Amino acid sequence: MKKLLLAALTLGAICASDQALAEGPGLMNPLVLKAHEAILAMELDEARKLLDAVPSRDPDGISERALLAVYEGDCDAAVALLERHGMTGPKSRAADLVDLARGCARVTAVTTVLRDEKRGFVIRFKDEDDLPLAPFLMDVAEQALVALDRDLQVRLPRPLRIDLVRDHFSLAAMTGLPEESAQTTGTVAIAKWGRVTMLSPRAMAHGYGWADTLMHELTHLAISRASHDRAPLWLQEGVAKYHEVRWRAPLPFDHQPSPDAVARLGFERGLGLPLDKLGPSIAMLPTAEQAMVAFAEVHSFLRYWLKENGKDALGPFLHSLATVSSQDGVDVVLKQRTGQDLAAWSQRWQASLASVSTALPPDLMPPLPPRPGEPPPPSAAPSPRALYRSARIADLLEERGHLLPAVDYARKSQTAAPHDPAARARLARPLRALGRHEEADPLVEQLDAVRAPHGLFLALHGALLRKKNDDSAAQQAFTRAVEQDPLRVEVACELVDAGQLPAEAPRAALCRAVRDRAP
Questions:
Q1: For residues 505 and 515, what is the distance between their CA atoms, to the nearest angstrom?
Q2: Where in the chain is the domain with CATH 1.25.40.10?
Q3: Which of 6, 47, 285, 460 has the fewest CB atoms within 10 Å around its CB?
Q4: Residues 6+ apart with CB under 8 A from 52
Q5: What number does CATH give the domain 384-517?
């Protein structure tokens, strides 16, 4: 099922920990050790003070100063420092950091930086045409920070840094994630080096859920700060996946299908892995399907653990990890707080999956291979190729003004995929243009009639609410639409007439910018 696959793919996955890259074999100087801990906790001013007391030629101190420069967004300074002290060779203890800093410096060589001192944000844009997105990014980030303070008792320091890049090459260079891994799993954002690096929505034909993705990645930063980067991968991803929608009001299609069902299917079909065997990054798993199952596993486990221990248990648990330096820190803290280690909790969780139904509707069934030794089950769903053909012909006909035949083709794809928001929007739009509102309105009237968010569908839903004079609900719908596909004209301009603009200034600016770029 396409929507579920995208849910896994469009959520960033943090790479191998910052600590592993920077710590090298020693870090014997206690001041450098303290500075390193401060950097991981994003206490950059404290780290700078500590490093000022370290001799300027101390190799560990040099590496940490370079790491600090990367955290502060000054990759050029990090490269210059390492080069000046001859620490750029392939056998240097800082070799990985050098590669990362050089890649970051290349991407940021020509960028536009927007600083909002009052709100405490620094946003770097690779493409200045994305500048109108800044107020929307900041609004989501502010709400996300409130949610993280509430749920995890973590306050991320300011300024908060967000980088918006054009493509997977830039995403890989800025973060150290191999480009091939980013493309294989479809990763669109990564929280690393004290900032969030995201693909611009323009990198995809119809955008992506950048707002929930931003919350997911900010959660990673909060986990790193609370635990001093000692939370293992499964815990980081479980907490981030659980929290990605907790910054906003829930929507009917959140978490469809249940991560419990996907996790059980993954284990049954040989794609499930033990929580502690997921490797250094979900983004580095070999296939998109395995990444999807991994996200479902960690999400399912965390929901189970919170159900058993209470939501208030998570923040103190994460903070406790910062006090345990051993590799089995999670087991130590789990035993202290719950009396059971990870193996016991994992066994209880997997046992609970036995009662989970995997009888999902065809359009919610994840695209997983059959169980080992079984033939592929016959598909009740129409072929994706046939659906795409009908949809594409409908789009082309509508673009050329042939609305009646466009309706006929759009109706074919909507009938075949009745819960697909894109198919509903594709049919509703030409019907509205023909004045056949009695047919168009029911297609976009109910949010619970679809399985996933979609920018145009939500914009059409907002326009219908506006027609009913429910302005508050209409604005909420338009906001949700921008959080999916902000660079589509109908979304950015809220389906107002060509000579008009949305009332709010940021939305009006976004509408102008998108109209100016429209063909």
A1: 15
A2: 384-517
A3: 6
A4: none
A5: 1.25.40.10
Closest CA to 391 of 363, 421, 370: 421
CATH of domain 2-15+111-364: 1.10.390
Per residue of the chain (519 residues), what is the pLDDT tens digit? Answer: 444 333 333 333 334 344 444 444 455 689 999 999 899 889 999 999 999 999 999 999 999 999 999 999 999 999 999 999 988 877 776 888 999 999 999 999 889 999 999 999 999 999 999 999 999 999 999 999 999 999 999 999 999 999 999 999 999 999 888 877 777 667 899 999 999 999 999 999 899 999 999 999 999 999 999 998 899 888 999 999 999 999 999 999 998 899 999 999 999 988 888 887 876 677 678 888 888 899 899 999 999 999 999 999 999 999 999 998 777 889 999 999 999 999 999 999 999 999 999 988 888 888 887 776 777 665 555 666 777 888 999 999 999 999 999 999 999 999 989 999 999 999 999 999 999 999 999 999 999 999 999 999 999 999 999 999 999 999 999 999 999 999 999 999 999 998 899 999 999 999 999 999 887
The one-letter amino acid code at 123 reads: I
Residue 412, amino acid: K
